[in-house]
């Protein structure tokens, strides 16, 4: 297993002057040895296309709101 982080840019309309891009960071788990070897060769900032399954987990009502368990989480799994 390997893991990597992918950033996506989302253009949202914010003000009358134009759009305000936002960045979302995604932590991806990969279980494919050949993909993992290739991922190790990429330099930080490389443009990638990641196709992955996702799992959405709702917040644990008993967890602290500022903890990861107290927030909604999306898990990405790159096969």
Q: Report strand %.
A: over 45%
What characteristic shape results from the CA principal axes? flat
> What multimeric state do the chains show?
single chain
Helix content: under 10%
Radius of gyration: 16 Å
Largest sheet: 4 strands, mixed
DSSP, total strands: 4
Secondary-structure element order, N to C: EEHEE
Structural class designation: mainly beta
Average pLDDT level: 80
Poorly predicted tracts of residues: none
Strand order of the largest sheet: 1-2-4-3
Separation, N- and C-terminal Cα atoms:
10 Å
Figure out the total of helices: 1
Q: What brief labels describe this structure?
A:
mainly beta, 48% strand, 4-stranded mixed beta sheet, 1 helix, 79 residues
Walk me through the structure.
- There is one protein chain.
- With about 80 residues, this protein is mainly beta.
- It has one helix and four strands; from the N terminus they run ββαββ.
- Strands 1-2-4-3 form a four-stranded mixed beta sheet.
- The longest helix has 7 residues, at about 35-40.
- It starts with a strand and ends with a strand.
- The model has no long low-confidence stretch (mean pLDDT about 80).
Secondary-structure blueprint of this entry?
Blueprint: E1 2-15, E2 18-30, H1 33-39, E3 53-57, E4 73-78
Parallel strand pairs: 2-4
Antiparallel strand pairs: 1-2, 3-4
Give a brief rundown of this model.
This protein has one helix and four strands. It is mainly beta and 79 residues long.
């Amino acid at each position: 297993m390997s893991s990597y982080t992918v950033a996506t840019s989302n253009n949202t309309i914010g003000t009358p002057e134009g759009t305000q891009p936002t960045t979302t960071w995604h932590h991806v788990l990969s279980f494919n040895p050949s993909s993992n070897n290739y991922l190790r060769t990429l330099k930080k900032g490389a443009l990638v296309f990641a196709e992955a399954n996702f799992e959405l987990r709702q917040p644990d009502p008993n967890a602290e709101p500022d903890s990861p368990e107290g927030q909604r989480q999306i898990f990405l799994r790159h096969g």
